């Protein structure tokens, strides 16, 4: 009943020209019937990406946004600006933003509310670091992130991405058991918060997903899709999207 969602996060990669080239090369190979496929390039490449995918089922997302509509926020981009550019999704609270740009659960909460009001689909990232996992703090930490980041929010359009920090960009993927264990836990926490919507909210796994591990991850009951970093930059992404 939940539509699968495969999203690519390009981070700070690809110029506008490289963006156009990427879509020219990969779009013919994508078969996303029945699946949502979302690519999140840099702000600067959004318009090129929207144009390149206009006649396809591939959707475009941003990697961040500000929660205010406009004003003195140097270097920021608003939800309205993203909407006007044709963007449909937005990643919020990625661990790199939390670590390098001091994003907090509170700012994530404001952004998620604003995204939903603006009819952008938020992909809200949560996940523990290695130290927290080794100390057995994963569940408490993820619970706190969800409760605070999603405070006052009960909306079936939400997407939550479980991204253990120790698996991001490291080549170390969580085993499907580890990933499912936390995704199932997240659905339980969403059940307390969002009642019946928790069965409709999509939960993604992210962390070194590639063409070899996608099938096993997607076979897990509470994993409705994946958020892919490094492998989304390469032709591998076509194999991930078309996995069978
Ligand atoms: C990410 O940055 O969201 C991510 C999952 O990266 P990677 O796939 O490279 O681990």
Concise structural overview:
The protein is an alpha/beta fold. The chain has helices spanning 16-26, 46-52, 79-84, 95-100, 105-117, 130-134, 138-149, 176-194, 214-218, 236-241; strands at residues 4-9, 35-40, 58-62, 89-92, 121-126, 159-162, 202-206, 225-228. The chain has a single domain, classed as Aldolase class I (TIM Barrel, Alpha-Beta Barrel).
- CATH superfamily name? Aldolase class I
Q: Name the overall outline.
A: globular
**What's the assembly state of these chains?**
single chain
**Helix share bin:** 25-40%
Largest sheet: number of strands, sense, barrel closure: 8 strands, parallel, barrel
Radius of gyration over all CA atoms, rounded: 17 Å
In total, the number of strands is 8
Spell the H/E element sequence.
EHEHEHEHHEHHEHEHEH
Question: Helical segment tally?
Answer: 10
Number of individual domains? 1
Present as ligands are: phosphoenolpyruvate
- Please name the CATH architecture: Alpha-Beta Barrel
Poorly predicted tracts of residues: none
CATH topology: TIM Barrel
Beta-strand residue percentage: 15-25%
Structural class: alpha/beta
Provide the spatial order of strands within the biggest beta sheet.
1-2-3-4-5-6-7-8
